Amino acid sequence: MAKRFAKEGAVLLLCSRSIDKLNILKLQLEEEYGAKVYTYELDVRDRKSVDEVIDNIPTELKNIDILINNAGLALGLDKVQEGDLDDFDIMIDTNIKGLLYLTRKIVPMMVINQKGHVINIGSLAGIHAYPGGAVYCATKVAVKFISDGLRMDVVDTPIKVTNIQPGMVETNFSVIRFHGDEQKASKVYEGIKALEADDIADVVLYTASVPEHVQICEVTITPTNQATGGVVYKK
């Protein structure tokens, strides 16, 4: 998404826990697209850190047009009764609370500026539950309903709210889910042509590029051979 928006001339404020990787990306975007890129080390689970980062953005950059809440993860595939409570906490704190912290901080600026677009990265898991994914699925249901509720709360403003709901996307998602087990993660995508990060970025850019009077509320995207979280055809 950073590459897509940089190519279109956007000024980027990128936040991540992995500041070293972010700074490498910053150099790439500046060299390839001549983009203006600012990077911030941020764990969205830490409300004080969210406040500090946003409060210290230079005044001339606080006219934020688009907020993309992309931080999110799944951990484990255990049954609820057998799951790791620390994993539960991390998923809830990142996928729900982190999204809320940034939304609560930035949307008031958008209201003052009378323009803005909040794009939340939800999941197909927010529509269809699957075995071993109850808590993760619940967090993505929350993303859907926070998006729907926010859209109602700003209906008297020009602010748009979009919820993007991808199915299987081959990124480091499964590596994180399986706590770094790359071999186990790779098996998730065997026998199916999964979506790629670029596919999601294309859709996000499109939702942000439609005319001012058009709001794309929700987009669900799956690979051709996936129907729901649990209905997948693999060769």
Automatic annotation (TrEMBL):
Gene3D superfamilies per record: NAD(P)-binding Rossmann-like Domain
Entry keyword set: Oxidoreductase
Signal sequence segment: none
Record-linked PROSITE patterns: ADH_SHORT
Residue runs in coiled coils: none
Family to which the UniProt record says this protein belongs: Belongs to the short-chain dehydrogenases/reductases (SDR) family.
PANTHER family: ALCOHOL DEHYDROGENASE
Name by which UniProt lists this protein: SDR family NAD(P)-dependent oxidoreductase
Organism: Clostridium rhizosphaerae
